[in-house]
Amino acid sequence: MQQKFFDLIAQENKKGATIFFSSHILSEVQKMCSRVAFIKEGKIIKTEKMSSLQENSYKRFSIETKSGINKEIFNINGVSSFEIKNNTAHFIFKGNINTIMKKISEIELRNISIEEPDLEEIFMQDAEDFKQLLGEYPEAVRAMLGINLDYITSLLGFYSMIFTFIVLCGAIQAMNLGVSILSKESRERTADFLLVKPVSRTAIVSAKLLAACTALAITNAVFIIVSTFMANLAKTEDFSLKTFLMINLSMLFIQLIFIAIGMVVSVFFKKIKNVLPISLGFVFGFYFIGTILVTDSSNKLERILSPFKYFDIYYIIQNMSYEA
């Protein structure tokens, strides 16, 4: 009956019909489909051609021996999820099957089982391979890229890695505005003109600061609206909108800090010909301090050195609150 069903589907497909076939059994999918979509909690999270999936073929092995198994024999690329129970080893292998069969031939077997893992196992294994790849980076590099291995496979964790660079851009914008508030008058020789106006110096600087803060507020409002819309398209069941908004709001707080730093810098460097090099120097300086010199996020005293460390994104994800 099953074969007749498969034959019927194949005939309709040859006529030009598009068939949506739902299954978690890899052998059935390989037989019937040309493209695969992985669906989690009602959302398509990955699509792939069947030819690509077959090139990265996974096999689930169960090997039973008469005596103990030396785990070192299977310490090769492609072997994962390795575990031993009694005299039986269970693992998943990805790659050329001849490679693993040569290793198995060195063992005196009692029984062997080779099966196709289901698609969920394949997807989870891909996620583990991704984490393992990132785990090989030095801790300082992971800190610089905003990578946390415990959360990287979740939507908020992956977004936090991207958000690190968004905050970096936001800090440059804020630093530019902060430095320009006072230095622009000297650079463009408008200071004397402003001083003859019937407006106090305090009022002029306050108006400029308010304009800069308004620009940041508009930037963050647009960013939050767009990012929230995109996150809702890809959200999973464990997605928290409150946590997502708290993460995004942290950029505004960091920008306000850099506006203040920029104003202080402009007091000491009054004749700045170009604001951007000063802004980039200070922003990247604080960023490298936060990622290279301050790798221990538990040391709050050292975290004072970099505004980028004032808000721990992964603390927000875990506790749905800012640090007290």
Which key terms come to mind for this protein?
elongated, four-stranded antiparallel sheet, alpha+beta, 13 helices, 58% helix
Structural description of this entry:
- The protein is α+β, with helices and mostly antiparallel strands.
- It has 13 helices and six strands.
- β1 (35-40) and β2 (43-49) form a beta hairpin.
- The termini are far apart.
- The model has no long low-confidence stretch (mean pLDDT 77).
Summarize the structure.
With 324 residues, the protein is an alpha+beta fold. The protein has 13 helices and 6 strands. Helix 6 crosses helix 11 (275-293) and helix 9 runs antiparallel to helix 10.
Describe the protein's topology.
Layout: H1 2-14, H2 26-32, E1 35-40, E2 43-49, H3 50-55, E3 58-65, E4 79-85, E5 88-94, H4 97-104, E6 109-115, H5 119-135, H6 139-145, H7 155-187, H8 191-195, H9 201-234, H10 241-268, H11 275-293, H12 300-303, H13 313-319
Antiparallel strand pairs: 1-2, 3-5, 3-6, 4-5
Helix pairs in contact: 6-11, 7-9, 7-10, 7-11, 9-10
Q: Alpha-carbon distance between the termini?
A: 64 Å
Low-pLDDT residue intervals, each spanning 5 or more residues: none
Q: Treating each run of at least 4 consecutive H or I residues as one helix, how many helices? A: 13
Q: How is the biggest beta sheet arranged?
A: 4 strands, antiparallel
Placed side by side, the strands forming the largest sheet appear as 4-5-3-6
Total DSSP E strands: 6
Give the SSE string: HHEEHEEEHEHHHHHHHHH
The best one-word shape is: elongated
Structural class: alpha+beta
Specify the helix fraction band.
55-70%
Average of the residue pLDDT scores: 77
Radius of gyration over all CA atoms, rounded = 28 Å
Strand content range: 5-15%
